[in-house]
Amino acid sequence: MTKNIQPPVAKIVPKQLEKHGDIRIDNYYWLNQREDKEVIDYLNAENKYYEQMTAHTKEFQKELFEEMKGRIKEDDSSVPYLYNGYWYISRFEKGGDYPIYARKKGSLDAPEEIMFNCNELAKGHAYFQLGGVSVSPDNKFAAFGVDKVSRRIYTIQIKNLDTGEILSDKIENCTGGSVWANDNQTIFYTVKDPVTLRSNKIFKHKIGTDVSQDVLVFEEKDETFSVFIYKEKSRKYLVIGSQSTMTSEFQILNADTPDSEFKVFQKRTRGLEYSISHFGDSFYVVTNKDKATNFKLMKTPETATSKDNWTDVIAHRKDVLIEDIEIFRDYLVVEERNNGLTKLRIMPWSGQGEYYLPFESETYTAYTSTNVDFDTDVLRYGYQSLKTPSSVIDFNMKTKEKEVKKEQEVLGGKFDKNNYEEKRIWATAGDGVKVPVSLVYRKGVELNGGNPLLQYAYGSYGYSMDCTFSTTRLSLLDRGFIFAIAHIRGGEDLGRPWYDDGKLLKKKNTFTDFVDCSKFLIESKYTSSKHLYAEGGSAGGLLMGAVINMNPELYNGVIASVPFVDVVTTMLDDSIPLTTGEYDEWGNPNEKEYYEYMKSYSPYDNVAPKNYPNMLVTTGLHDSQVQYWEPAKWVAKLRTVKTDKNLLYLDTNMDTGHGGASGRFEALKEIAKEFAFLLDLEGIKK
Asked: Can you count the helices (H) and strands (E) in the chain?
């Protein structure tokens, strides 16, 4: 009987933490020693407790896994795209957990060349990720990155695609991506700080030379910035980007002259954000210059790139956020967001006859896809909604004809999108602001308050939570669940002001918005507190921790994945990955005002003697984004402080990091665990 199984109790070792004259006592600080046997033993004890307590759901988990796997086309492949004379394809084979990257020369009828078979490369590794495949301009070499630990630290190597030989060049501690100069001999890559994992250096490497001789091209010394490098679509320029939350700076170099010096495009000015796209003899600049909160599009000659030379192409609009642009020879395509919905605006350079692509739903997302060439009338874009599988569509901007190149197949013979209802409703927050909520559920659901409902949100970094289709989610919907996305402040769903209103000293709006959406869903009879569940991961896990401290009575169960819950301690430790680069998001607790505000909502610091919902907390031992000890400490503290007898589980994947398992089917096993937790609480056994 599970009633006789006792949860592990972490030992208490009080540690005094002092800042600004304020003393906090952290009884579980010791859990941050990843190599300590006692720490590993505690995490294993929590895992054992979780396994024992959920043993009765094991068969159900297997059924859910097989059900979700059964909807996936195992021998699936991407829509091919043509680049520099080759068609590129990624595909899966039946039974394969990992993708195969291939290409065909000149024609889709040409023989397939397998560049990387990740199923072979992953053998013997608990975790495997291939990233940053970059082919040289002469199509002979491919640089690629491999991560076998899941801390997003890659080793770059180079493969001769003609012979299949992996060259001896081996570059450690990178982001994984690299960029070729036009000489086919030089690659540029980004290195991470070994302690903080901040991307801080750009190096240059020549094929066949010793890596120790690689040239440091640029070092980003400001700890609030990270760096990256890419090549413009025109293939003329290499670009180094330096980015913080609120400020950007770019440097450019002609790709024909890799040994020359990079030149600053526009020097950093605090609060000035911009991104650049080269076309013809100009650069197009998406920027918030001149107080353009929702961004505008400007243009500048490639020979005079400082902001004094920028001129308006699309003026700033208060109700429309410019997210990105895609440039073609005859057309400019603008990705916009208005009233929470993504829109694709087609603008001929001739100035005649601009239009928007028509989308009818209010719970969809649309986005430009792989568009690598200027010289075409065809825009490739993606479309999906909460009930509509994702499609890749080729749209002729001249004739307005569209061709669906691929629609995601849902196998099993049971799925019909017409069996589901999707809608958008608006909840009113405590300060009167209207917050959109997107819903999907099976048709025929009665709004009587008795429906199980899973409410999901993120709400940080200006990351908009778009309405995407999920084959796994069908396992909940088909068992009577309603799924809701709360588009709360802190995201950018309703433009940049929506983000600004949910960060720094306004961060609590993120949490109160979520709670107010929950109350609205209950008042509107979509569900009740007995059947309402909440889920969030990473910064969304912080959201979970905050709302259950504020209003635990609203939820029957909560899933917090890799949750960022020890906000004050983490933000005071500048040796932890991401910390310094996050001051513009959360505030710098070395300043008293931010310290006190952070402390007032930090989930770990605000655990109190009260009843909490049933909880499943997940983490990865090697997580580089949110360290495993945050959820471990949080659960340990909750165990000793909470006053209820509800379930509390900590499930630590001892092999992976922030993104969870690496194989496509292994990841399904983690989702099956989460769904079994929710369905078990609802008494749904099959």
From this structure: 12, 37
Report pTM.
0.87
| Ramachandran class of 629: left when φ > 0, alpha when ψ lies in -120 to 50, beta otherwise | alpha
- Answer whether residue 149 shows pLDDT above 80: no
646 or 196, greater pLDDT: 646
Q: Do the strands 614-620 and 557-561 form a parallel or antiparallel pair, or are they unpaired?
A: parallel
Summarize pLDDT for 472-525 with one digit per residue, the tens: 999 999 999 999 999 999 999 999 999 999 999 999 999 999 999 999 999 999
Pairing label, strands 482-486, 557-561? unpaired
CA angle 681, 459, 501 (to 5 degrees): 140
Cβ-contact 439, 517 below 8 angstroms: no
Q: Which amino acid, 308?
A: D
Residues taking part in catalysis: 538, 623, 658
DSSP for residue 448: S
- C-alpha 340/C-alpha 321 separation (Å) is 10
- Taking alpha carbons only, the member of 671, 490, 451 closest to residue 585 is 490
Strand 320-327 and strand 331-338: pairing? antiparallel
Question: What b/e string do you get for 301-321 counting C-beta neighbours within 10 Å, with b at 16 or more?
Answer: ebeebebeebeebbebbeebb
- Answer yes or no: are the C-beta atoms of 43 and 651 closer than 8 Å: no
Residue bearing tokens 């004379």: 85
Strand partners, 342: 337
> Which amino acid is located at 502 in the chain?
G
The total of other beta-carbon atoms located within 10 Å of residue 441's CB is: 23
CA dist 161 and 167 (Å) reads: 11
The region, left, alpha or beta by phi > 0 then psi within -120 to 50, assigned to residue 462 is: left
**SS3 sequence, 158-172?**
EEECCCCCEEEEEEE
**d(Cα 177, Cα 179) in Å, to the nearest integer?**
7
Residue with tokens 């017409």: 418
Please give the structure tokens belonging to residue 672: 């099956």
The set of residues, in sequence order, having a beta carbon less than 8 Å from that of 284 and lying 6+ positions away, is 276, 277, 278, 297, 298, 299, 313, 325, 327, 332
484 touches 453 (CB < 8 A):
yes
The reported pLDDT for the residue numbered 2 is 64
Cβ–Cβ under 8 Å, residues 111 and 104: yes
Candidates 580, 441, 562, 458; CA nearest to 513 is 458
Helix, strand, coil % in the chain, rounded to nearest 5: 20, 35, 45
Phi, psi values for residue 625, rounded to 5°: -90, -55
Cα–Cα distances in angstroms (integers) from residue 512 to residues 276, 502, 547, in the given order:
36, 10, 8
Strand partners, 282: 279, 301
Q: Are 467 and 524 in contact (CB under 8 A)?
A: no
Structure letter (DSSP) for residue 446: -
pLDDT in tens, 432-484: 999 999 999 999 999 999 999 999 999 999 999 999 999 999 999 999 999 99
The most distant pair of C-alpha atoms in the chain lies apart, rounded to whole Å, by 76
Q: What is the CA radius of gyration of the chain?
A: 25
Per DSSP, 289 falls in state: G
